[in-house]
Design goal:
Layout: H1 12-18, E1 23-31, E2 34-41, E3 46-50, H2 53-62, E4 66-69
Parallel strand pairs: 1-4
Antiparallel strand pairs: 1-2, 2-3
Length: 71
């Protein structure tokens, strides 16, 4: 007998909560005419900012998060 799948509608909030303790999103943002790189938790909380992308990625990794770039 084949395994049956349980169908569930997954919301964007459900997906965010799945990675909240392990994924960090990295994206650029202009602040005072200067490009900064921000680190966000999966659910959107701003965690940190850096002057460049590599520094933002390092911050995420140093805090045991998996960095993911958002464009």
């Amino acid at each position: 007998m084949p395994a049956t799948a349980i169908e569930k509608n997954i919301t964007a909030d459900d997906l965010a909560e799945m990675g909240v303790n392990s994924v960090a999103y990295i994206r650029p943002k202009t602040v005072d005419n200067r490009e900064m790189w921000f680190v966000y938790a999966a659910e959107g909380t701003e965690l940190a900012c850096a002057d460049d992308e590599n520094e933002a990625i390092s911050m995420a990794i140093d805090n045991e998060l998996i960095p993911v770039s958002v464009h």
